[in-house]
Write a structure and sequence with these properties.
mainly alpha; 7 helices
Length: 161
Amino acid sequence: MGDETTGGSDAALAAAGVELVDAVVAAVPSWIERSVRHLVTAWSGAVAPAVADQAREAGIAAAAEVGASLRQLLSADVDQQWTNPMSIIRRAVPHAAAVLERAGVGAVERSVGDEADFPDDVYGLMPRTFADVDPSLHELGIRWGAVKARAHLDRHRPSGR
């Protein structure tokens, strides 16, 4: 296995990472806004303009925070990536939760599994998959994972295999 193969898979991983980050940053604001609007509407019947503004601002702030952390993670060497993209994307949830709390929205009923996996997510917003944030992220997330696996294999597979 030569450096050419490893270099090619490293470059492919970097490109897939950039594509995923850009798509996540584009999707997070509308996901936060949709989530807030959905729960506020279910709770009180309507979304006040001030709450809508707060949701929009929270989405922009969440995208900036998540985007910076994702860029740092996905630009790191394959052996230095300390977590996965979903764990970083989940950091956007408190932005929406803060708006919901200020709007007086109460906690939602969640499954036992959700309560165990995400005890602090009282609004049930925590995404389990890329598609939970936006369907357009599903394929990009799968592609990034496959490219990362390939880069890891190319680097660590014993010669001749």
